[in-house]
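Researcher: Let's walk through a ligand-bound prediction step by step. First, I give you the protein sequence. Second, the SMILES string for zinc ion. Third, you return the three-dimensional complex as structure tokens. Ready?
Model: Ready.
Researcher: Here are steps one and two:
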Amino acid sequence: MLASKTPQVDYEDCCTPVINQELDKSSVSVMCSECSTKGKSIDTQTVKSLLAVSLENVHPVEYHFCAEDSCPVVYFAVDGGQVFYESDLRERVYQKAAGDESVNVCSCFDITPADIHNEYVETGSSTVVDRVDAGVKAGQCACEIRNPQGSCCLGNVRSLVKKMTVETALQES
Ligand SMILES: [Zn+2]
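Model: Step three, the predicted complex:
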């Protein structure tokens, strides 16, 4: 019977993203209100997934991610009316934790800079890029709901491995 396959759409209605058509474009700022760095547009679903505070606080506006390491803001509303700090989130934020080796660089596969560092010390190389790559190909990642930046960590992992490769080479020379 086809009728039994009719999708139940009612429950989706409450969570249909509010398309913000009324936002006055002249009041939109893609600059972080605290550090004036240009933020990166982020899916509201990511903001909702990562926040530890009640989602009643989430406004129907576009949010951007501030990646500046010296700035405490993680998400800011482009209407300038709101910011969320790392302390409002469920996860630590890699970009805000320069030098802290215990903060996940990859939230999907639980990889910290310390893990990469330890593998370097033990084996002289790193398999982490291949590991993440394989996980992504296997469809095991969920960057948009687990990674505070809302996108794949591979770029961050690659730069970190590159940095450690250079540091290891310098130590050996
Ligand atoms: Zn900022």
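Researcher: And what stands out?
Model: Helices lie at 10-13, 44-50, 113-123, 128-137, 143-146, 154-172. The chain has two domains: 21-88, 98-172.
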